[in-house]
Structure formats: structure tokens, C-alpha cells
Design brief:
Elements (H helix, E strand, L loop, with lengths): L8 H7 L5 H9 L19 E2 L6 E2 L9 H5 L1 H4 L9 H8 L5 E4 L6 H12 L2 H7 L14 E4 L2 E2 L16 H5 L3 E7 L1 H4 L9 E5 H6 L6 E6 L6 E8 L6 E4 L1 H7 L23 E5 L8 H10 L7 E2 L2 H29 L14 H4 L13 H22 L3 H28 L5 H21 L4 H13 L25 H23 L8 E7 L6 H4 L3 H8 L1 E7 L16 H4 L2
Parallel strand pairs: 3-4, 5-12, 6-10, 7-9, 13-14
Antiparallel strand pairs: 1-2, 6-11, 7-10, 8-9, 8-11
């Protein structure tokens, strides 16, 4: 028994010029047939040719190979290796891949097929025979493998088109709106009733649009003018249907579809324009592409399932992007008022600290105020940590580090430095504050570029390209990755300021728990430090802490002393004790 594996259609036709006559006859009857189908069933079953060894008639083997075999061949098949001209050098340069990334179900799928075929085919002897320039050691299909969890709905359940428990991408990327099948009270059943001027949808759909019961929305037919209506949620309706009052339904010129309330969510967009309406929240914009990307980076570790919803995307957006945009807006507003121009006196190329140091009025970090030194130290440490995390494929940890940095910049540095920016004139201290904030924003624009490319580009174009249109890189995505400023790093200062911020955060939490507003001054606060070595170092920050907590003095207690300040009263629980 002989076997032969021709590499192409041309190779088969060389053995039998009439091998594909059956397919060509079928294509004459149906010109829409794609040429690539000629090597697939049923036409490939008609292909025969003479055996190159014995001259007998050869047919296709009946076995069908698992399609995962194709995916496992991807590293060399994408280049046509080893048959295509030039494929050797391309494959040699790209194999193994730096990393691959897929969901956990690919553990026995693509991840395994790549490993299996690579191990089977590319032993050292084969590598030498193929002419590869360097020996790959096992395992060698990829250097790193990032395993992801699945994307689920807000309750952690698998998203399903038929059930409708998914968030359409356009709701996140374009406008907050969805299509709904129209139903009347008869089709809705279960006693659901809509008042005139109100639209009823499933409570789950109301939450999916991130709206509250009674919100005002725009409701319209495709291509027609919109009318404002009050949106209500109910548990008596299935997903992706809307119940309208007869008057509203006739006014919109819509009717109930053939399936009534039993229409599947995936079928709604395919209904006629007279059987569906669009509900849009015109008051709140959609989060956009940057927020969508950031959500998947920062919402949870990559190996866990992601609970995807419009609400969760907006929550992640508030924690990072909105804070960063607020800082950016603060800087641009006051920089324009005061006429701060980083390009004065120097045509700079690059944005690292040694380059910015050539700018007019830029002073060494050690000559600046404490807050400036701390913030620039945090920036350098963030740059160092984010770089290390990304090089180690730890995207989630890199995102968390950026969140911490932006929170420190927004809630501590800018808030504590506002009076410096508001001060009249242009003192040396005020210029230091501008240079510090400018360095932070330009560095963050580069650090954030892989995560939120559009906003990073917006910041870069305004902060960098506008002052230096000729000497700086055309785009943030063409810049060099930032290098941490080693001269700015002050580990001790970072530890001390973190302790100060923790004390303030806990103190404010105590005020909140006891309903004591910050504007109400208190006599003192008792602080117990877990790290005793920080006690003496914290005394230098007492003014900062008392100002934040609005207290007159601080009592530093040793661990265990806090019990001396608390008076306990014990009352018997007579109901539990009994008679």
C-alpha cells in the first residue's frame, strides 16, 4: 500500500490534469462556488491520479484529521514552510513565539496541539536538516502562555445570544442603546401593564443599560424621529422585549412581531422595522474603546472569569481614566492661565528626566518641595514596576500599579498642591509644581499607551507635540518607552508618605463610621503604628495629618495601649440566658 501527500492543486493536476473536472462542472452551474472548495468534500472524493510508485489509482484516504492539527501547524504553516520560497528565514526568525494568549478551554485545544506537533516534528535532527540556524530546546512552540478566564455576564453566568444576557459591544463603544421587540399586553401576559408614556422592559435589561427605574430615555423606530418616555423595569417580561401602551405603539407605528414575547434576543435585530424599537440613554455617553480595553486589563486577574456589564466597565473607568482625565484637565486649564510653556528655552527631543532638565525653570528634584519629591519618586517607582510587570506578562499587576499611581497623583498630590497652582504670580515653587505635574502626565501618557491608546494619544498630542511639533515623535505610540529616573527614587520617603496616607484614610473612615463630618474639628486622634520604626519618622508629618483629619493633636500609642483608652460595658443578653 502506497501513500502520497501532494502539496497543492497544481501538484495534483500535474499527476492528473482532469482531477478537478467534477468541481469545475459544478462551478459552471453555480458560479458562486469559491475555488478553495475544490479540495473539500464532496468534490475531492472525485480526485484520482496514478500512484507515482506503482502506477495504481490513488484515492483520498477516508480518515479526516482533527482540525486542531491545522491550528497546531500554525507556526510554520503561516509562512508556507518548508515549501514556499523565503519561508525558511521567516520561520527561523519567528519560532518560537514570544507568547500566546487564549482562554482556559484551549488547554486541551490550541495550547496542546501547538506543543504536541512542535515536539513531534522539530527534534534536533530535524532542525538541523531543515537548516534552522539555532537549536530550540523543549518545549519550543512558545516562550510564554497567558491563560485567560471566560467573559461572563454580571452574575458570573455564561453569556448567551439566545438568552440575551450579554452586553452588545456597541453599547460600550458607540451609544448606550439596544433594540427591543415590541409586545402588547396580550402578548406579554403575566399581568404586565404599561401606562401611556411609559415603556416596560425586563429588569435585567434595565440594569444592562445601567439605568434606574423611572429614567427618561429616547425611544424610536429605525429611521424615525425619537420621543422621550419613562422607562420601567419588571420581572414579568423576558429579555429584549418592550411593552408599550396601545396609544404609544400606534403613535410610533409599530406592531407586535410573529413570535410575540417568545422572540429570542438574537432574532430581535432581524425583525422588520415595524416590529422593533430602539431605546437609547442620551444623557450619559458610552464608555468608549479605551474603557472597554481597560476593563479587561484591570477588572480581575486574567485567569479568572470576567463579569462583563456596562455598569462594571463604567466603575473601572471611574477608578482610573476619569481620575487621570481630571488631572489632565486641571493641568491644562491652569497651565494656559499662567502661560506655562515647557518648550521655552529649549528644543527638546524625548521626555525622560535628563531631557526635561534642559527646560527653562526646571530645577533638580532634590531642590523641590516635599510633595514634588515624593510624587516624582512614586512616578519613577511606578515606571520601574509597570515595566517589570509587562516584561513578565503580568498585565493585571501593571494595571493595578497604574491605578495606585493615578490615585496618588489625583487624590494626594494635586489636592495637596492646589493652592500652589492658585497662587498669584509665577514663583519658583509654582513652576516646580508645573514641571512635576507635566513630568507625571507625559510619563503616564507613555505608560498608559498600550492600555488606553486613544486618551494617551490625546494627552501626548496636546502636551508634547503642540509645544514641539518638529523635534518630538509624531505619536505616543512611536515614542521610546519611559526610563525610570533613578535620581528621583526615595524609597524611605515613599514608605513614610504611604503610612501618612494610610493614617489619613483610616481616620476619615472612623469619622464616617461615627458620622463626624471633616469640617467638625476634634481635639485629638490616637494612632497605633504596626511598624514601630516609623513612629519617630511620622512626627515630621504631624502637621499634614492634623490638617487632613481636622484634629488639633496626635497621640502616638504603642501596640496594646489602645485598650487603655476604651471603656467596655457588658450587658447580659437575657433572652439568650433564659430565666
Amino acid at each position: 500500500e502506497h501513500k502520497h501527500a501532494p502539496s497543492s492543486v497544481a501538484a495534483i493536476e500535474k499527476l492528473n490534469p482532469q482531477a478537478f473536472d467534477a468541481f469545475r462542472a459544478a462551478k459552471e452551474k453555480d458560479p458562486q462556488l469559491s475555488d478553495h472548495l475544490m479540495v473539500h468534500k464532496p468534490w475531492v472524493d472525485n480526485v484520482v491520479f496514478a500512484c507515482p510508485v506503482c502506477g495504481g489509482e490513488m484515492h483520498r484516504v477516508p480518515e479526516v484529521i482533527d482540525c486542531w492539527f491545522d491550528s497546531g501547524c500554525m507556526p510554520f504553516a503561516q509562512w508556507g514552510f518548508p515549501h514556499a520560497p523565503g519561508s525558511l528565514s521567516r520561520f527561523d526568525e519567528s519560532f518560537p513565539a514570544d507568547f500566546i494568549s487564549e482562554a482556559i478551554d484551549q488547554t486541551r485545544g490550541w495550547f496542546y496541539s501547538l506543543l504536541m506537533i512542535s515536539t513531534l516534528v522539530f527534534d534536533e535532527e530535524t532542525q538541523r536538516q531543515m537548516g534552522l540556524t539555532r537549536m530550540r530546546s523543549y518545549p519550543h512552540p512558545y516562550k510564554a502562555c497567558i491563560v485567560l478566564g471566560h467573559t461572563c455576564d454580571k452574575d458570573g453566568k455564561k453569556e448567551s445570544k439566545s438568552k440575551g444576557n450579554y452586553t452588545p459591544p456597541e453599547v460600550i463603544l458607540d451609544r448606550v442603546r439596544m433594540d427591543f421587540a415590541v409586545v402588547d399586553e396580550a402578548a406579554a401576559g403575566k399581568g404586565a401593564v404599561a401606562k401611556q408614556g411609559e415603556a416596560l422592559i425586563a429588569t435585567a435589561d434595565l440594569e444592562g443599560l445601567d439605568l434606574t427605574d423611572g429614567a427618561t430615555v429616547r425611544l424610536f423606530r429605525p429611521g424615525d424621529g425619537a420621543r422621550e418616555m419613562v422607562l420601567r423595569g419588571t420581572r414579568k417580561l423576558p429579555r429584549r422585549v418592550v411593552l408599550l401602551h396601545d396609544v404609544d405603539r400606534k403613535g410610533l407605528g409599530v406592531e407586535v412581531g410573529p413570535h410575540g414575547a417568545k422572540v429570542m434576543a438574537v432574532e430581535v435585530p432581524r425583525l422588520s422595522e415595524s416590529q422593533r424599537v430602539t431605546i437609547e440613554d442620551s444623557h450619559t455617553p458610552s464608555p468608549g474603546a479605551d474603557a472597554f480595553r481597560w476593563f479587561f486589563y484591570a477588572s480581575s486577574p486574567p485567569w479568572t472569569n470576567t463579569r462583563h456589564s456596562l455598569t462594571n466597565v463604567r466603575t473601572a473607568q471611574k477608578e482610573f481614566q476619569i481620575k487621570l482625565r481630571n488631572v489632565y484637565s486641571f493641568f491644562t486649564i491652569y497651565a494656559n492661565i499662567d502661560g506655562f510653556d515647557p518648550s521655552e528655552g529649549a528644543e527638546l527631543k524625548g521626555l525622560d528626566a535628563d531631557v526635561l532638565a534642559k527646560g527653562q525653570g526646571y530645577r533638580p528634584v532634590n531642590d523641590r518641595a516635599l510633595l514634588d519629591r515624593w510624587m516624582l519618586s512614586e512616578l519613577a517607582l511606578t515606571t520601574r514596576d509597570v515595566t517589570a510587570h509587562l516584561e513578565g506578562y503580568r498585565v493585571y499587576e501593571a494595571a493595578l500599579r497604574l491605578i495606585d499611581c493615578v490615585d496618588a497623583l489625583s487624590n494626594w498630590y494635586v489636592r495637596r498642591s492646589r493652592e500652589r497652582f492658585w497662587a498669584s504670580g509665577f514663583s519658583e515653587d509654582k513652576r516646580d509644581a508645573y514641571w512635576t505635574l507635566y513630568a507625571c502626565l507625559t510619563t503616564l501618557s507613555r505608560l498608559c499607551a498600550p492600555f488606553i491608546p486613544f486618551f494617551a494619544e490625546e494627552m501626548y498630542q496636546n502636551l508634547v507635540r503642540r509645544p514641539w511639533p518638529g523635534s518630538q515623535a509624531e505619536s505616543v505610540h512611536l515614542c521610546h518607552w519611559p526610563t525610570p529616573d533613578a535620581t528621583a527614587v526615595d524609597e524611605a520617603l515613599s514608605v513614610e508618605m504611604k503610612a501618612v496616607r494610610d493614617i489619613v484614610s483610616l481616620g476619615l473612615q472612623v469619622r464616617t463610621n461615627n458620622r463626624l463630618k471633616v469640617r467638625q474639628p476634634l481635639r485629638s486622634v490616637d494612632v497605633v503604628l504596626a511598624r514601630r520604626d516609623l513612629k519617630d519618622r511620622m512626627k515630621a508629618y504631624e502637621g499634614l495629618i492634623t490638617s487632613e483629619l481636622n484634629v488639633h493633636e496626635i497621640h502616638w500609642l504603642e501596640p496594646g495601649q489602645e485598650g487603655q483608652e476604651v471603656v467596655y460595658k457588658l450587658k447580659p443578653n437575657f433572652r439568650a440566658l433564659g430565666p
